From TrEMBL, chain A:
Family: Belongs to the gas vesicle GvpF/GvpL family.
Amino acid composition bias (Pro residues), ranges on this chain: 261-270
Descriptive protein name: Gas vesicle protein
InterPro entries: GvpL/GvpF (IPR009430)
Location (main, coarse): other
UniProt entry tagged with the keyword rRNA-binding: no
Lineage: Bacteria, Bacillati, Actinomycetota, Actinomycetes, Kitasatosporales
From TrEMBL, chain B:
InterPro entries to which the protein is assigned, alphabetical: Gas-vesicle_GvpA-like, GvpA
Family per similarity comment: Belongs to the gas vesicle GvpA family.
A Pfam family that the UniProt record links to this protein: Gas_vesicle
PANTHER family per the UniProt record, alphabetical: GAS VESICLE PROTEIN A1, GAS VESICLE STRUCTURAL PROTEIN 2-RELATED
Keywords carried by this UniProt record: Gas vesicle
Top-rank lineage group of the source organism: Bacteria
Source species of the chain: Streptomyces vinaceus
Subcellular location: Gas vesicle
GO molecular function annotation: structural molecule activity
Assigned GO CC terms: gas vesicle; vesicle membrane
Keyword Transmembrane listed: no
Name of this chain's protein: Gas vesicle protein
């Protein structure tokens, strides 16, 4: 690339022969080839996985503007994720937050070297673990609009007003019972997680049109030892079958995005991390 | 770590964008790069995304049943 370029960092990893073999086949943002930048720190060898990005697209002003552009954001997010996934099949990986950019390779290497010890410790901790997401949704049938509900009521309404009020009551009752179910399901998932996972992070429930018509009330990420991943997924699927009014979804396997940074407090497996968002499986119906 | 799951998503099945942004914007190693997007900026992005998403066509919204997002060219 002839235009001024910046160094975009995707992940921290350990150099392996598998990674060296895969590297020429991998591409980053804008189809640029990936490079490995070695750390100068003591201990286990570490590298940054990087590529060049155009300065015009990734300077501070451009970045702020681009972040308002969903299409651009999706392209960068999917490319970043693609690189992380590809690297994760070859070596243990610590994904970086999206859009971590340095003026040049030299500056990036400095940043990596400063963090060498912390990154080594984190990679050791995450070795042979994989992240899975667990989400609970209220299904659309349980969150009907009052006017929709009125049309499915079996009783003969005497007036539109009364029918509306009856429908509202029925709807509130349904919602309350479904929220209760969501709470019971969340507890069942926690009981499973206590045996089969080592850490949890609560993400904020997903809102907005990207979540389609279903209301997301729980959005957790778990760190699961590889040898327990199958059992974990099967156990969650079993819980899902017990709650027909909820949709319980497992996402993953993910590289350990949600666990890449140690939580600020002492690592208690059940402690929520620095991520915002409280569980909302229990909520007052509006 | 191995990202090959017996029962996991098919390799060509697209991850839902909303799950991806959860992880790429609020997860991952946070390093202060030379080009600084502060946590506040990221939070603003998340908020404005929610507002922006409303105006996105249904074609772009993730189909949860398919577990996919939009088709990014």
């Amino acid at each position: 690339m002839t235009a001024p370029a910046l160094t975009y960092v995707y992940a921290v990893t350990q150099p392996t022969s598998a990674l060296d073999a895969a590297l020429p086949t991998l591409h980053g943002i804008g189809q640029e080839l990936l490079r490995l930048l070695p750390s100068d720190g003591e201990g286990m060898p570490l590298v940054f996985v990087v590529s060049d990005v155009p300065e015009a697209d990734f300077n501070e002003t451009a970045l702020k503007n681009h972040f308002e552009d969903l299409e651009w954001l999706e392209y960068v997010a999917r490319t970043h994720h693609g690189v992380v996934q590809a690297v994760a099949t070859c070596a243990p990986v610590l994904p970086l937050r999206m859009a971590t950019v340095y003026q040049d390779d030299h500056r990036a290497r400095q940043a990596l070297t400063v963090q060498h010890r912390a990154f080594s410790a984190r990679l050791d901790l995450l070795r042979a673990h994989t992240e899975y997401g667990v989400k609970i949704y209220l299904t659309p049938s349980t969150t009907l609009e009052p006017d929709q509900e009125a049309t499915v009521g079996s009783s003969q309404p005497t007036s539109p007003g009364k029918a509306y009020l009856r429908a509202r009551r029925a709807q509130q009752h349904t919602r309350e019972s479904v929220y209760q179910q969501a709470q019971v399901a969340a507890q069942a998932i926690e009981a499973i997680a206590a045996h089969l996972t080592t850490q949890r992070v609560r993400h904020a429930p997903q809102r907005g049109a990207l979540t389609a018509t279903q209301e997301n009330v729980l959005n957790d990420a778990y760190l699961v030892p590889d040898e327990q991943a199958e059992e974990f997924q099967a156990a969650i699927a079993e819980v899902a079958r017990r709650f027909p009014d909820l949709r319980i979804e497992v996402t993953g396997p993910w590289a350990p995005y949600s666990f890449a940074t140690p939580p600020p407090e002492t690592p208690d497996p059940a402690a929520p991390s620095h991520h915002s968002g409280a569980p909302t499986a229990h909520r007052e119906p509006p | 770590m191995s990202l090959i799951a017996n029962d996991g998503p098919l390799p060509d099945r697209q991850v839902a964008l909303v799950d991806l942004l959860d992880r790429l914007l609020s997860g991952g190693v946070v390093l202060t790069g030379d080009i600084v997007l502060s946590i506040a900026d990221i939070d603003l992005v998340r908020i404005s995304l929610r507002a922006l998403i409303v105006s996105v066509s249904s074609e772009t919204t993730a189909s949860l049943a398919a577990g996919g997002g939009s088709d990014e060219s």
